[in-house]
């Protein structure tokens, strides 16, 4: 009898997946946070990377293969940001649900990207043929992605459509209200210039009406060199430069060096959810980013 | 502006008429008339002045209207601009198809497979003449051993990969080889993978590198050292690849666990002869892995290869069984393995032979064949041989890494290659990476292949990849 009970239990354990909550694998913390906004406890979310990691060069680690193996939906930035590891994860995991079709969601395909190169040549550094993939700091694009993610969740899990719809409506309302607040607060940033570590900020800068006047990396993905940093001193000193920006995961040394030689403050922005104490969710990410930028406005 | 000119005309015309009137009336003039006329002229002048004032004020009004119009225009433009801005923001969510690749029929190359080219070149200087190099207990088979003296082109390969259709993925890797002067192109790998099998199953068929051990399934250009460990040279001829089929299953667990098995034709070293109806080799493998915190990752595995062999390159015929245990540990602050940290890896091999030895035919014909140093007498070949390596690579930053590897082989105490000396080698490497696509490597090896010989070697290698961005395994 015990054996029978055990067998039944085992059968139920294996039969259960048909009714289980969706498993979502998010390549980056911002998409994990977005899924949490849109689905709450209705899904389980595994986030593949942290704000302190450089997502361009993640390795196809065994732990990530295990996560992709169990996923019903993979959500990533796309535009080749994860090309060095995601294809390997998907091929190794042997999970046909996320290899293609509705289980494979690339955020870049839902929006218009900026900086699509007109010329593809690796002598230009790590160029992305499909445009700049760091669009999580444009709240309008985040909203566009949110709508597409929500549609995908409903497609994969129609039983909870009402939950997803209601949560999207709620998120949109709060997000649009937040955008107004951010835009009002960020007014003093308009027209200010920044030097960046890597070209990760174009969407944020465009949104806030700021301009990038230089990058610490001589070419995208090429580590800063002392000769290149020295060549940035004059540009950085030129009037009205607000700050030198870097993401939480980037080496602070090159930015600090340039700051010392120019008097322009170098600041570390969270870049994604989890990048600092305040950036606990998407709202916190934008709050913290704008706070930190405003803090250096004189 | 036109309007204001018109207004000016209308206003000034009567004044001109009035001013010309006194000239026509001059003949019949009397003083009174003149006075009257004078009064009238004055009156008219006043009137004209008034009219002029009116004109000026009309002009001013027109000017004001123009300014207002321009203001309105500007306002309209800025309104348009803000409309454009909001349209741009609405546009951020436009579907990507509009900006994607042009529609299929337009470009016949649109579905071309991803092409990746790997090239490498090597300079090696050996203190021991490679032609006189012998390894105690382990015959050297083609492509193994110390490598060449001087400059040489390393393995150069070109690989094509793409999804074939909704169910299959295919990859072809062609390589340029230069084995002892035999130059040619060979098919290194040519296989198809399934994409849609359920429940974590994958099937691969074609020619491919076996998934046993750690390094065996990795292409040499991803290695941390210029050459393969001694154990890979001795037991797998650097890397075991053959024609076959593989089934692999990944368990749905919180940590990584893959189990699998392969069948192979059994024609490449360490097997030969394509026995058992062309299914001469079987393998089984299991790999597990995971993370410890965010700073550490690990991968470990056990594998076995069993084969029926007829006259392999080392002269063996019979049953050979190879057991491999592998373990990799990577530590990197915050898991950023490309920016710093340490990778430690070790593999251990146990090779069990139950058969006979006979001098391979090739050795008797080709005087340059390293097997010339081997025993000529046929005899039983029974017993175990062992080998292994441990390597540690310290990544200083994205550009530099520094590594050390210790290699050891344990020679058999009986059989055709019985020897009481165990070959040992120490290697030290320094790698400079310009990008993900190119590196230069300097390596020093101190190799004691026999009791009485030592080979001190210096290598300088470049390795580059062109084209498609290959995603590497862990």
Brief characterization of the structure:
The complex is a heterodimer of chains A (298) and B (474). Chain A is an alpha/beta fold.
Structure, explained:
The complex is a heterodimer of chains A (about 300) and B (about 475). With about 300 residues, chain A is α/β, with parallel strands linked by helices. Chain A has two domains: about 20-180, Rossmann fold, CATH 3.40.50.1980; about 185-295, 3-Layer(aba) Sandwich (Rossmann fold), CATH 3.40.50.1980. Chain A is built from twelve helices and eight strands. Chain A has helices at about 1-15, 30-40, 60-70, 85-95, 95-100, 140-155, 160-185, 200-210, 225-230, 235, 250-260, 280-295; strands at about 20-25, 45, 75, 105, 195, 210-215, 240-245, 265-270. In chain A, helix 11 (about 250-260) links the parallel strand 7 and strand 8. In chain A, helix 2 (about 30-40) crosses helix 6 (about 140-155) and helix 3 (about 60-70) packs across helix 4 (about 85-95). The longest helix of chain A is centred in the middle third of the chain and has 25 residues, at about 160-185. Chain A is globular. Chain A starts with a helix and ends with a helix. The model of chain A is unreliable at about 10-20 (pLDDT under 50). Chain B has about 475 residues and is of the alpha+beta class. Chain B folds into two domains: about 1-85; about 120-465, Porin (Beta Barrel), CATH 2.40.160.10. Chain B is built from five helices and 17 strands. Chain B has helices at about 1-25, 30-90, 230-235, 275-280, 360-365, and strands at about 115-125, 150-155, 155-165, 170-180, 180-195, 200-210, 240-250, 255-265, 280-290, 295-310, 315-330, 340-355, 380-395, 400-410, 425-435, 440-450, 455-465. In chain B, strands 1-3-4-5-6-7-8-9-10-11-12-13-14-15-16-17 form a 16-stranded antiparallel β-barrel. In chain B, a hairpin with a 3-residue loop joins strand 9 and strand 10 (about 295-310). The longest helix of chain B is centred in the first third of the chain and has 61 residues, at about 30-90. The two termini of chain B are about 75 Å apart. The model of chain B is unreliable at about 1-25, about 80-85 and about 95-105 (pLDDT under 50). At the A-B interface, helix 3, helix 4 and helix 6 of A face strand 7, strand 8, strand 9 and strand 10 of B.
């Amino acid at each position: 009898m015990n054996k029978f009970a055990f067998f039944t239990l085992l059968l139920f354990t294996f039969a259960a997946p048909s009714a289980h909550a969706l498993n979502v694998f998010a390549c980056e913390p911002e998409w994990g946070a977005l899924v949490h906004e849109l689905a709450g406890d209705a899904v389980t979310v595994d986030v593949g990377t942290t704000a302190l990691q450089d997502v361009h060069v993640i390795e196809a680690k065994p732990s990530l293969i295990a996560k992709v193996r169990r996923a019903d939906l993979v959500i990533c930035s796309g535009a080749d940001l994860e090309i060095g590891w995601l294809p390997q994860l998907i091929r190794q995991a042997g999970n046909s649900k996320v290899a293609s079709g509705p289980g494979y969601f690339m955020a870049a395909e839902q929006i218009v990207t900026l900086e699509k190169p007109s010329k593809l040549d690796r002598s230009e550094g790590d160029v992305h043929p499909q445009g700049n993939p760091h669009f999580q700091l444009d709240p309008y694009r985040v909203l566009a992605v949110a709508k597409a993610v929500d549609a995908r969740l409903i497609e994969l899990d129609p039983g909870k459509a009402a939950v997803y719809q209601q949560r999207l409506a709620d998120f949109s309302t709060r997000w649009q209200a937040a955008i107004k607040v951010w835009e009002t607060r960020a007014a003093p940033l308009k027209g200010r210039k920044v030097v960046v570590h890597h070209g990760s900020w174009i969407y944020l800068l465009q949104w806030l009406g700021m301009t990038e006047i230089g990058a610490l990396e001589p070419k995208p993905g090429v580590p800063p060199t002392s000769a290149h940093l020295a060549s940035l001193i004059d540009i950085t000193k030129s009037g009205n430069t607000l700050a030198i920006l870097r993401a939480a995961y980037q080496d602070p040394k090159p930015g600090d060096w340039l700051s010392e030689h120019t008097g322009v403050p170098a600041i570390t922005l969270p870049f994604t959810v989890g990048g600092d104490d305040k950036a606990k969710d998407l709202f916190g990410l934008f709050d913290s980013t704008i706070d930190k930028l405003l803090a250096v406005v004189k | 502006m036109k309007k204001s000119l018109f207004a000016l005309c209308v206003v000034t015309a009567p004044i001109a008429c009035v001013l010309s009137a006194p000239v026509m009336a001059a003949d019949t003039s009397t003083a009174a008339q003149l006075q009257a006329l004078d009064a009238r002229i004055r009156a008219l002048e006043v009137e004209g002045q008034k009219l002029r004032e009116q004109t000026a004020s009309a002009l001013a009004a027109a000017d004001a209207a123009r300014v207002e119009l321009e203001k309105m225009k500007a306002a309209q433009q800025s309104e348009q601009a803000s409309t454009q801005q909001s349209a741009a923001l609405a546009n951020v969510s436009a579907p990507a198809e509009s900006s994607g690749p042009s529609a299929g029929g337009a470009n016949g190359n649109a579905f071309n497979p991803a092409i990746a080219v790997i090239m490498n070149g090597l300079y090696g200087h050996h203190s021991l003449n490679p032609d006189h190099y012998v390894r105690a207990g382990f015959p050297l088979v083609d492509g193994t051993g110390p490598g060449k003296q001087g400059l040489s082109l390393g393995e150069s390969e070109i690989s094509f990969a793409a999804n074939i259709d909704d169910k299959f993925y295919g990859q072809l890797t062609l390589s340029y080889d230069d084995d002892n002067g035999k130059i040619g192109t060979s098919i290194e790998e040519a296989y198809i993978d399934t994409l849609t099998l359920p429940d974590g199953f994958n099937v691969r068929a074609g020619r491919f590198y076996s998934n046993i051990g750690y390094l065996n399934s990795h292409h040499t250009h991803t290695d941390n050292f210029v050459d393969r460990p001694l154990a890979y040279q001795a037991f797998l001829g650097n890397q075991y690849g053959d024609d076959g089929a593989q089934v692999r299953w990944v368990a749905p667990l919180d940590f990584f666990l893959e189990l699998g098995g392969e069948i192979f034709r059994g024609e490449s070293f360490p097997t030969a002869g394509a026995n058992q109806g062309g299914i001469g080799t079987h393998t089984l493998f299991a790999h597990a892995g995971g993370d410890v915190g965010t700073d550490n990752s690990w991968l470990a595995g056990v594998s076995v290869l069993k084969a029926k062999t007829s006259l392999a390159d080392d002269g063996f015929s019979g049953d050979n069984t190879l057991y491999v245990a592998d373990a990799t540990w990577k530590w990197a602050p915050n898991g950023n393995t490309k920016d710093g940290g340490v990778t430690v890896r070790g593999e251990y091999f146990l090779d069990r032979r139950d058969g006979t030895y006979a001098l391979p035919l090739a050795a008797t014909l080709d005087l340059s064949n390293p097997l010339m140093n081997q025993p000529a007498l046929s005899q039983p070949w029974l017993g175990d041989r062992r080998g292994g390596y441990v390597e540690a690579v310290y990544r200083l930053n994205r550009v530099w890494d520094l590594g050390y590897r210790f290699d050891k082989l344990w020679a058999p105490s009986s059989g055709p290659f019985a020897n009481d000396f165990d070959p040992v080698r120490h290697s030290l490497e320094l790698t400079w990476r310009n990008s993900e696509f190119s590196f230069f490597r300097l390596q020093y090896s101190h190799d004691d292949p026999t009791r009485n010989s030592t080979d001190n070697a210096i290598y300088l290698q470049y390795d580059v990849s062109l084209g498609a961005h290959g995603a590497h395994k862990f």
